[in-house]
Each structure stands twice: as structure tokens, then as C-alpha cells.
Amino acid sequence: MFYIADLHTHSRYAQATSKFLNLETMYQWAQVKGINVVGTGDFTHPAWFAELQEKLQPDGNGFFKLKQPPSAPALPGLKVKDTDVRFCLSAEISSVYVYNNRVRKNHNLVYAPDFDTAARISQKLSHYTDLAADGRPTIALSSRDLLELLLSISEQAWLVPAHAWTPWFSTLGSRGGYDSVEECFRDLTPYIFALETGLSSDPAMNRRWSQLDRFTMLSSSDAHSPQKLGREANLFDTALSYDGMFAAVKTRTGFRGTYEFFPEEGKYSWDGHRKCGISLAPAETLLLHNKCPVCGKPLTIGVFHRVELLADRKEPSLPEGDAGFHYIVPLPEILAELHGAGTESKKVTAAFTEAISVFGNEFTLLKDAPLDDIARYDARLAEGIRRMREGHVTRIAGYDGVYGTIKLFEGETPPSRAQTQLSMF
Fold it and tell me: What is the pTM for the complete model shown?
């Protein structure tokens, strides 16, 4: 069966996350988005794990159902199409350690098929850190040794490098990473079968480096609030089960690609220095010898630059069985541009609630609904979605922790609803 999975999330127990991130709100927003499988995030945190055990029940296929789904919608007056939401036990682990005389900072995603396996993982990790200190625990254990720990516990526990190119905390990042996956995981590299692209890269960028051809490219939201679920997601057409999903990732049979941010919207796309407001393309950075032109401090080298350094192809080359990807712009951002208001404004929230109530969920509207049907509802929204689907957007790249911007009507005033209705008439 076809389903959508967001496999990188957090709970309210992780640092810098919403206090409203709980199983009920994750369920509600999965319905809003049209997501079938949601990572629990943070199963290593004792309080969150106790909540998972209390509120979730196994579905018999390695996923979990919420025992008492909330009856209220995520927003007042919202009507959504019923979506069968399952949860997958997941956690993000931060490894900070020294290897070959350099400090390495890698984030990795860990998955477990059942509570017993998750508990055994946490029990072993508790020897390295206080798991109650943060939903995303930090351990002085290398990525390679973390993988070895998982393999010693279960043949069904999986590790996927998180946001693989992010400068500060990733396998291939400019500040704390390596120059290859093999250098990071060494003798255990054959057990790595997928990479998470992260918001600042897309599969096409990764397909410029032949060393990554054997890895499946996953994309998830890394949501720190329930509303951010599904800003990136994975598409499957396979058994709705833990084993079926990961078999599809490993073999690419049944894996149907991803929904992606335009990578420029990610907050580490270009090089830059946030404090000085400096954003630079890789070629400009090289001319400045990686120094900020304002204060002279080192620039944060972004994902585009890092890919350029390691790539051995000028253009992407898709390996056999690669499913590709589709760009999306979150619906609140489209509506904010159309209404000239903030994404969390009353005007945009009302428009979002109405549009979701008409089309059932966000992914149906963004990717599946015929443009003619959307135009009959709102022609200007249809035009914005058409431009998104065709990639006709203006991209303003993020840098050094500052999100970029995607514009559908750059240099234009979006037509009013009255104008588009008159035009249609």
C-alpha cells in the first residue's frame, strides 16, 4: 500500500522544542498533513519512554497505534480526511568525540521495532550519559561504536546518519564531520544503507557524488513543533510494517522517493556569518579565503559549498532504482505570501483551516489535487501550487542558522481572490 512516513521528530523533552509536542498533537498534525507513519523521537528519554509505553499499543507489525486518539481537531473548525496514523520508535543521538585528533560531532537516527529493543538500547546508552538530561542525548561514543552497540542488541535496530551535510552535527558536515561515510563508520560501513538529506540538501545534490550512489536518500521533518511535521517526508508503496518499510529503504523496491524542501530554504544552505548578516555563494567564500568580510572571523561553510568540495560529478546521476523526489512548499508559507501576512497570523490560520477542510489534508492539496479543482476553490492558490509543482520559484538561500525563503510571486503582487474570480468569470 502507498503511505507517507516522517521518521525524524522530537518530543517536548528535547532541547529547543515546543512544550506542546506530545503523542496527541503529533497524531492531530499527522492527520492534517496526511502522514501515515510518524517517528516517536526521543525514545531514550525515560519520561518520554514511559509515556510511549502508557499511550501506545503495538499493531503487530512493528509499528504502534495511539490507544486513545484525540477527538478534537488540531485547529478549531478544522475538518480532515481520516488517516490511519502509526508510530515508529525512533531517537536522535548526538555523538561528540575525538577521532584522528579532531573533534567530531555527528547526529544519528536510531530505530527500534519494539519496546524491549528500545529499552535495551537505552540501558546501554545510560552508561555514557544521563538520558534524562535531553531528549536528544549527547554521548562520547563515536558513530561507528554507536552502530556496533546497536548491532550487538538487535538485528532489527537500524541507524541512519541524520541531516548528513549540516555543518555542525553530521556525518559529512564542514565543522564536525568526515570526508566520507567510510571514514566515519569504517569497518561497519556496510551496515549503513541510507542517509537523511536534511533540509539544506536534496537528493539531486547527493547524486553528484558517486560514493553515495549505494545509499537511499531519506528526508524527514526534524520537527521541533507539531505544526512542522511533514515539511519533508518519505513515500512508500510496500507493506505497512517496520520490516516492510526498512526493506524498501534497503532495496529501493517499494520506496517511492521523498517530498523535499527547496534546499535553499534550509538554514545552512550557503556560507555565511549570521552575526554580521553575511551570506555568500561558495565561489565568493573562496575569494575571501573563508573569512567574514566584515569581522574577519571564519565563515560557517554551508551545505552547497561542502557538496561542491566532495562531488565528483558536475550534474546529478541517478543510480539504478533511485525513486527521485518532489519539491514542496508548506501550505502556510504559500498562504502567507498570498495574504501578505505571517504564517501564524489569524488570516493565514483561517485560510489554512478552510483549505484543509475542503481538500482533506495538506499533501493531497499540495501534490495530488488537480489544479482545475484547486482553481475552482481559489484560482490564486492554484497558481501558487502550479508554480511550486513546476519549480518556478525564486530561491533566497539560508545561511549560518538563518532559514532561506522561497517566493512564488517574487517581483509580483499576488492577485486578489476577487481578481482571480473575475478573471475566471
Answer: 0.95
